[in-house]
Design goal:
The chain has an eight-stranded mixed beta sheet. The chain has a three-stranded antiparallel beta sheet with strand order 1-2-3. The protein is α/β, with parallel strands linked by helices and about 425 residues long. Helix content is about 35%, strand content about 15%. The longest helix has 25 residues. It is globular, with a radius of gyration of 40 Å. The protein folds into two domains: about 40 residues; about 300 residues, no CATH class. The protein has 13 helices and 13 strands.
C-alpha cells in the first residue's frame, strides 16, 4: 500500500478548507442553493478521504504453491496416526533353494506362485456354497505364509506376491453373505513378533492371533488382549521345512511352540462322522507332546475329521470352521466369541461324502469360516474334498407310499 505523509496531508487539507471557506461565504451571500449543494459535496469528499486513510492494508494473496491448508495438514497427520504402522520387512540375506523351499541362514519357507485359475476355482466353490445357504454368514480367510514377509524380494513380489494372489481369490467372491478377511494386512503390522516358525510351514499361535484380530475387526466383535491369556511353550520343535530339506541350518535353529489357554470354559469332543455319534474328549491345548516333529499338534489335537466345542460364552452364536492344519492354531481364540464352535477337515474319510448344507442346517449353525493358507487352493486333495462336500446335496425325502389296500372282506354266503 502507498504510504501517506500525514504532515503533507494536513497542510493540503488546511489550504483546501481555507479556500473552500472563502467560496462558501460568497455562495452563502449570493447563491444559497449552490451553497447547500457545495456543503454536501464537501462533506462527502471528507468522508471518502478518511475512509481511504483508515482502511486496513490488503495483504497479497499467496499462490497455491506457497501454502498448505492447515485443515488438510492436520487431517493427513491424523490419518497417519490412526493406523498402526507396518513394520519394515526384513532382508532375507543369502539363501539356497531345496525342493522348492528357500533356506536362509536360520529359516526355511515354501515358495509361493500365483495360480490364477486355481484361486478363482477356490472362490467359486465358496460362492456355490454361499448360494445354497443365503441365510448364513460366510467368511473367507486366506492366510499368508512366512515367505510373504521374510523371504527374498524375488520370491515375495511379482508372480510370487501373496497379496496379489489373495486379491485374485477375494475379487472372485460373489454374494451378499460372503465377507473376505484381510489377515495379511493385520499380520504385516507385527513382523517383529514371533509369528511364523522357522523350521515349519505353519504360523505360530501369535500369527494366528493376529489373523483372529482381523476377523473380529471385520465382523465387529471384541477380542481379549494376548496378555490376558495364560500361556506356555513347548521347546525343541523341528517341523516340516526341516523334514523336506534335511537342512543342518534348520536343525540347529529349532522353534518353540507357544500356546495360549482358552479364557472361557470349554467342553470339546471329536467325531469321525457328521452324525457325531462316536464322540471322544477333545483337548483344546495339549501340553505334554515330546516328539520334536509333532509339537504343532498341541492345537486341538491336530487334524480330526470333525470337532464340536461348547463354551461358557453367552453369545448364543455358532460357527463352523472349515480348514486344513493352518486353522488349528486359530480355533482356540474363537472360543471367546461363540457358544459353539464346530471344526471340519474335509480331507478326512469319515466326512468326505457329507452334505455341508445339511450339516449346518441340522445343527443351527449361523456362521461359516473358510480358513486356508495360500497354498490350499493349489492342493488337489484338499480342493477335491472341499468341492465334494459343497456339491453334495441333502438327501431328498422319499415320496410317501400309498396306503396298502384294505384286505377284502369275506364274501357273503350265497343263499340257496
Amino acid at each position: 500500500m502507498k504510504k501517506y505523509n500525514t504532515q503533507d496531508f494536513k497542510g493540503k487539507t488546511n489550504a483546501f478548507l481555507e479556500n473552500a471557506n472563502e467560496n462558501i461565504k460568497d455562495m452563502k451571500k449570493n447563491n444559497p442553493q449552490k451553497f447547500i449543494g457545495t456543503v454536501l459535496m464537501l462533506i462527502a469528499s471528507v468522508v471518502i478521504v478518511f475512509a481511504v486513510l483508515l482502511a486496513p492494508e490488503k495483504k497479497a494473496v499467496p499462490t497455491e504453491a506457497d501454502t498448505t491448508a492447515p485443515a488438510e495438514a492436520a487431517s493427513s497427520v491424523t490419518e497417519q496416526t490412526t493406523e498402526e504402522p507396518t513394520t519394515e520387512l526384513p532382508t532375507a540375506g543369502e539363501y539356497t533353494v531345496t525342493n522348492y523351499i528357500v533356506v536362509t541362514d536360520n529359516a526355511g519357507m515354501e515358495i509361493y506362485s500365483i495360480a490364477k485359475g486355481k484361486l478363482t476355482s477356490y472362490a467359486e466353490v465358496i460362492n456355490t456354497f454361499a448360494a445354497k445357504v443365503p441365510d448364513k454368514q460366510i467368511y473367507c480367510m486366506l492366510a499368508p505364509t512366512r515367505i510373504a514377509f521374510y523371504g527374498p524380494d524375488e520370491y515375495r513380489t511379482g508372480q510370487h506376491s501373496q497379496p496379489d494372489g489373495i486379491n485374485i481369490a477375494y475379487s472372485a467372491l460373489k454374494g451378499n453373505n460372503i465377507k473376505a478377511i484381510d489377515a495379511y494386512g493385520e499380520i504385516s503390522r507385527h513382523t517383529n513378533d514371533y509369528i511364523y516358525f522357522r523350521t515349519d510351514h505353519h504360523w505360530t499361535a501369535r500369527g494366528a492371533y493376529y489373523a483372529y484380530n482381523a476377523l473380529c475387526k471385520a465382523t465387529g466383535q471384541s477380542y481379549a488382549p494376548l496378555e490376558s491369556y495364560q500361556s506356555g511353550k513347548l521347546d525343541g520343535f523341528v517341523g516340516s521345512m526341516y523334514r523336506y530339506t534335511n537342512s543342518k541350518v534348520l536343525e540347529s535353529h529349532p522353534d518353540y511352540v507357544e500356546y495360549f489357554m482358552p479364557i472361557v470354559d470349554t467342553d470339546g469332543q471329536f467325531f469321525t462322522t457328521p452324525e457325531m455319534s462316536d464322540g471322544k474328549t477333545l483337548r483344546i491345548i495339549t501340553t505334554n507332546i515330546t516328539d520334536r516333529a509333532s509339537k504343532y499338534m498341541c492345537f486341538i489335537q491336530g487334524d480330526k475329521a470333525l470337532e464340536r466345542i461348547k463354551t461358557s460364552s453367552t453369545s448364543g452364536k455358532k460357527i463352523l470352521v472349515i480348514k486344513e492344519s493352518y486353522g488349528n492354531a486359530l480355533v482356540p481364540f474363537l472360543l471367546e466369541n461363540y457358544s459353539e464352535v464346530y471344526v471340519l477337515d474335509p480331507r478326512q474319510s469319515g466326512v468326505s461324502s457329507m452334505s455341508l448344507k445339511k450339516f449346518v442346517d441340522d445343527n443351527g449353525i449361523g456362521e461359516i469360516l473358510f480358513i486356508n493358507y495360500v497354498m490350499a487352493p493349489s492342493n488337489s486333495k484338499y480342493m477335491n474334498a472341499l468341492t465334494n462336500i459343497v456339491n453334495t446335496d441333502p438327501p431328498t425325502a422319499a415320496p410317501a407310499t400309498a396306503a396298502p389296500a384294505p384286505a377284502p372282506t369275506e364274501a357273503p354266503a350265497q343263499q340257496g
